[in-house]
Amino acid sequence: MADNGGGRGLRKPVFVKVESLKPGTNGHTLVVKVVNSNTVLQKGAAASPHLRNTRIAECLVGDDTASILFTARNEQVDLLKPGTTAVLRNAKIDMFKGSMRLAVDKWGRIEVTEPATFEVKEDNNLSLVEYELVNVVDE
């Protein structure tokens, strides 16, 4: 394991709840259950080369506090099947048309884990909240 500073060893990740996720934040570790998954992009060989064989699915994931749409890419789609419980490590919030999406890029990982006992709170879907994208200008 790479030592990330000062010989302290690895920091134990702090698990956060879905309801605490905010726009523009990253480095989240959380346990979520997958409610459903919808493929939004399925590119075959005809697509442009950098998108070839790209699969993207929007998965509704959540815990007992809230739910959020997770943008799953390629092999992540296979991991995040409905009913699966997963630990998302180093997840980040992306903004899509003014609403939050959870994602795990190459710096994070998804681990399928033991089934969670909680019920996902679907009536508090953070991806349905629209944020005004305000540009802060220093006068």
Automatic annotation (TrEMBL):
Pfam families: OB_Ssb-like. CDD domains: SoSSB_OBF. Gene3D superfamilies: Nucleic acid-binding proteins (2.40.50.140). InterPro entries: NA-bd_OB-fold, OB_Ssb-like. It comes from the Eukaryota. Residues 21-112 form the Single-stranded DNA binding protein Ssb-like OB fold domain. This is Single-stranded DNA binding protein Ssb-like OB fold domain-containing protein. It comes from Sesamum angustifolium.
